[in-house]
Amino acid sequence: GIGGGGGTSIVTAGMRALPLGLPKIMVSTLASGDTAPYVDVSDIIMMPSVTDMAGLNRLSRVVLHNAAQAVAGMAAKPAPSAAGKPALGLTMFGVTTPCVTAIVERLRADYDCMVFHATGTGGRSMEKLADSGLLAGVLDITTTEVCDLLFGGVLPATEDRFGAIARTKLPYVGSVGALDMVNFWAPPTIPEKYRGRLFYEHNPNVTLMRTTADECRRIGEWIGTRLAACEGPIRFLIPEKGVSALDIEGGAFFDSEADAVLFQAIERTIKPTKHRAVTRLPLHINDPTFAKAAAEAFLDIAKK
């Protein structure tokens, strides 16, 4: 595609709907600025046009020639198909890394494990792959993006979180990873309404806010209601001893009462069936035994 402001908006909207891996190049007058609204979680290549699209000149001819050669080359020499192992999508945050790493180690012999950082774009990228037919299953251990969506954090999911799971009916194992926190940037950026809350400085640029019992109820209901609409095989695991590295006895965010409200809300709204089950485990999310249980739950539903 080629275009200015309007053309770029129109063409990239179509490109974002195409499968990942299909070659896409957008030659645009906007390509040297903030391209996030046009690229989003797709694999669109943005090429600056340098000059405007008002007719051809010696520079625009070269730019358009290079773009044409690039897309023709990608089409003529497609990447080899990923033969062999089926692919899995997994979600991870720093505070759930031990769990997800252990799951990957347990499954990597049979699956190509693709781990996504649960920063809003990570969850959307994973679900984009699911919608594109490129995943054989999902281990959504870290559903924290929902917290930021509901309470104004800076790393939010969209309202379509879990939508790809419902549409594709992929085997799905989920959990409550990092649902104890909402993400903000440096302390001065935190909304005034949250002043006085319990915060943890993850680094100078990222500040975490502990979710309250009432917020946990809303989070659990939001997740449970959406997973209840999924007709594929669903297994949701609840680690009763904590949902993140901070939510552990003696940790900065440990709050067993808020966690209990979260767990009850999920159980109440997810509506278990023979295809959809919720399991409580007397473990912390980063306990190796919890990771083993998650991996085995996925292997069980994948086999069936």
Question: How much is the average pLDDT?
Answer: 96
Classify the helix fraction into a percent range.
Answer: 25-40%
What overall geometry do the principal axes of the alpha carbons give? globular
Computed over alpha carbons, the radius of gyration is 22 Å
CATH superfamily annotation of the largest domain: Uncharacterised protein family UPF0261, NC domain
Query: What is the H-and-E element order?
Result: EHEHEHEHEHEHHEEEEHEHEH
Largest sheet: 6 strands, parallel
CATH topology of the largest domain: Rossmann fold
Assign the CATH architecture of the largest domain: 3-Layer(aba) Sandwich
Q: How many E-type strands?
A: 12
Helix count equals: 10
* Biggest β-sheet: strands ordered side by side in the sheet: 5-4-6-7-11-12
What is the CA–CA distance across the termini?
44 Å
Task: Give an overview of the whole structure.
The chain is globular and about 70 Å long. The chain has about 300 residues and is of the alpha/beta class. It has helices at about 5-15, 35-40, 60-75, 95-105, 120-130, 145-150, 165-170, 215-225, 255-270, 290-304, and strands at about 1-5, 25-30, 45-50, 85-90, 110-115, 135-140, 170-175, 180-185, 200-205, 205-210, 235-240, 275-280. About 40% of the residues are buried. A six-stranded parallel sheet has the order 5-4-6-7-11-12, sandwiched between helices. It has two domains: about 1-75, Rossmann fold, CATH 3.40.50; about 85-304, Rossmann fold. About 40% of the residues lie in helices and about 20% in strands. Helix 6 packs across helix 8 and helix 8 packs parallel to helix 9 (about 255-270). The model has no long low-confidence stretch (mean pLDDT about 95).
